[in-house]
Amino acid sequence: MNPRKITERMAQHLDMLRAQSQFRTLGTPAGIDLNSNDYLGLATDPRLKQAVLEAVAHATTVGSTGSRLLSGNAREWEDAESGFAEFAGTEAALYFGSGYAANVGLLASIVRPGDIVFSDARNHASLIDGIRLSGATKVIYPHCDLSYLENALREHAGNAGSKVIVTETVFSMEGDVAPMQGLLELARKYGAVIVLDEAHAIGVLGPHGRGIAAEHACEREVLAIVHTCGKALASAGAFVCGGKTLKEYLVNRARTFIFGTAMPPYFARQIQAALGLAREADAERAHLRQMAAALREKLAARGFDCGTSETHIVPVMLGSNERALHVADVLQRSGFAIRAIRPPTVPEGSARVRFSLTSRLSLDEIRRLAQAMDAACESLPSVPSASVVHA
Question: Could you report the per-residue pLDDT of 132-155, keeping only the tens digit for each?
Fold first, then answer.
């Protein structure tokens, strides 16, 4: 076999991405952090660092040695799962090595051909891939459009398979919140079940940072809730939370759990420590809400389009890839760590910069950011844009 043909094909595709301003490179911009998901600032918190050091010092092993079903299970993980289920308000929880693995493993195992999945158009790629692998019929409803969703549910009311509504609670690229009350009412009316991804809500929204499901007291009503640990909890992995039967089923059927090497036992202690810090972070959550509201207000006053954002994620819609890259470059040179968000992460014509705010930001930094956005857009090149950018 000659690999040259495939290598040339890859090179041609990369050239196409460069021509479309969609080529990506690795690297982390320096400056004030507006790029990460460290919403509570725990990634640099000395208390969490100390907890990790103590966990490693007391660990009998720093490697898991295998999958949970072979040699990788540990009391630490069982304790972490019990503690997280209590936090999430569910009967049980199961840990996966990443949020992507959790969503793919969950959906690909609990949904099957003959079922119908109703998925929000702005759902994360991990949810989309899990649905694809399930083999179920897929209905994509426009973002947060309850009328469209109800019509689709009504149309498939006579279907013999299960009906599953899948949605993020806080949408990572929009910064808005799913219409939970309406979703719950539709699920009850049409006999559907709900799967929630709380990745960008945990630690930040809901009572004690427990998320949107807890805010609506529906933790035991929905089928499954995915809480990731790599964002506000400054760790890694994710818990699928739900009933005991769901956990046992995933242990036996979720391929991303069965065939994945377990994380080392000491890491469970890091997650538990982070969760404890997040529970008590009401002041940080309040400050984060204040910073997000201030940024949206300042950007709106300058004529910027922040879409439907209502959380700590604040996008500015710029339309073309070139405009988004230009604004991101100017902001980086102004001392802000930010990158442009382009297709396929977002739909064509909706490239943007996305400010992912943390509780470490100050009001002065928010003011400086708004001023830097003014400067960036004043120097925008004359290229087509799908959005009104700056009044």
Answer: 999 999 999 999 999 999 999 999
Query: Do 90 and 219 meet the contact criterion of CB atoms below 8 Å apart?
Result: yes
**Pairwise CA distance, residues 109 & 130, whole Å:** 9
- 3-22 pLDDT, tens per residue? 788 888 989 989 988 888 77
For the record, the structure tokens of 369 come out as 């950011």
Q: How far apart are CA 75 and CA 243, in angstroms?
A: 20
The CA dihedral of 50, 51, 56, 61, to the nearest 10 degrees, is -170
Report the C-alpha gap between 146 and 314 in whole angstroms: 23
DSSP string covering 41-92, please?
Answer: SGGG-HHHHHHHHHHHHT-S-SS--SBTTTT---HHHHHHHHHHHHHHTSSE
Which residues have a Cβ under 8 Å from the Cβ of 8 and sit 6 or more positions away? none
Q: Which two tokens stand for residue 97?
A: 């090595």
Q: Which domains does the chain have, with CATH numbers?
A: 21-40+282-378 (3.90.1150.10), 46-279 (3.40.640.10)
Pairing relationship of beta strands 224-228 and 238-242 according to DSSP bridges? antiparallel
